Amino acid sequence: MEPTLDTRIARALDVMQHQVAEPWTIRTLAALVGLSPSRFAHLFRRATGTSPLRFLHTLRMTRARQLLEDTPLPVRDVMRLVGWKDPSHFSRDFQRRFGVGPRRYRAAHAVNGPGDEGRRLTDEARVLK
């Protein structure tokens, strides 16, 4: 039987997923769920297998990839929606994660063929659910 996820960690995960662009720190996440930063980091790592900030980084990169594939938003807007402020840092991290920069990734993966208009999500609120 698998152990149940601590409700405080589940809450932190939910908040991170729904507010991915927020400037989260271990201290702010821990305070949000009523734990000390060290206890929060320990429980988070035990539950997810990774640190809170590494999890957030992966979440942001995954969300950026989805936005580049599914929306016509400019790369600069995608970057901001997932919590980056520095374009060169975003581009470098994206390339490190996916092997190609965000503009080239979009060119290779974006939904833009004939008949694909129905799949393209242009409503940012729908994408960020």
The global form is elongated
Q: What's the order of the H and E elements?
A: HHHHHHHH
- CATH top-level class of the largest domain: Mainly Alpha
The residue-averaged pLDDT reads 87
Class derived from helix and strand content: mainly alpha
Report how far the terminal alpha carbons are from each other. 31 Å
Q: How many structural domains?
A: 2
Tally of separate helices: 8
What is CATH's topology name of the largest domain?
Arc Repressor Mutant, subunit A
Strand content: under 5%
User: Do you know the CATH architecture of the largest domain?
Assistant: Orthogonal Bundle
Rg (CA only): 16 Å
The largest sheet, given as strand count, sense and whether it forms a barrel, is: none
Give the helix proportion (percent range): 55-70%
